[in-house]
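Q: Could you fold this chain for me?
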Amino acid sequence: MEFWTTSIGVAKMRPIPGALGDGYDKFVNDAAEAEALGFDGYGSGEHHFMYDEFMPIPLQAMAAVAAKTSKLRLSTNAMLLPLYDPMEAAEIAATLDVLSNGRVSLGLGMGYRPYEFDGFGTRKTTRGARLREAMEVLRLATSQDSFSYHGKHYQYENERLQPRSIQRPIDLWFCGGTSLQGARRAGAAGLGYWLANSPFDHTENIVKEYRKAGEDAGFAASDLRIASFKDVCIGNTMAEAEGLRQMLMDSFYDEHILGYGYLVDENGKNLYNPAKDHPLYRRFVSSLYCGTVETVIEELKRYEALGMEMIFLPSQQRELIAKEILPEFRK
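A: Sure. Below is the predicted structure, expressed as structure tokens.
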């Protein structure tokens, strides 16, 4: 199982002011540090029109990371593909793949914030169908010398991608949140599925639904790849670990998961500013696993046993994770 990570970088927390230039420098320098510490991959999310200058074009920033690293996988997590023309996205990704000598992994998501779709003049209601079609366009464009595609939303005839990516095709992941609906959608399409933060029991159910949908659609087990985000908060005691989790909720997560509709119920409805006793909010809080080094290792071993190819760990406590946890999975 591989371990990938990230940097706070330009996604500033309100209590911690910082300059934009410093944020990008930190993002690139943190990538070099992550490689030196033994992490396998490094990524960035994507959001637009944010007060805190959240990374708007992760593939562009990753070009600077490519120049400072040599082995690290360079990922998007998640690139909001419905905001792009698919061939434009393929060109940008292929260019980075050439610059990095074939190290790009695209985590691709639908997006959920209405103002981003409004800002780019594209429809939010069709984002799920367009994501699936666009992922197929990316697969075809980066695996064939020329291709044609005729979907409901995108049509191409004898198109050729230049430059050609090193990977054929480029590494693609469907970032599908934590809903069973998203898991079934990814499985039915045979797409690699990258889960969002979720408690283990719910993660286990998601994986089962994903694999069942994939097998029912005729895909081999080897085609059905899974990965997961997994925030961990490590302390010498449980109280210390839970204190770190509360700090993260207060200073960063609460704003993003409550104010922008991140939480989605099983009917696909985005929840805006739900009460903190709402079951989906409580599930998110519990998804940030708290424990000592020993119990965190045990928890991650359970994810490994599910068949996870990769776990995406948070940026905080990166040195501690590299020193105390990664060696347990390298034996």
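A (continued): The mean pLDDT is 93.
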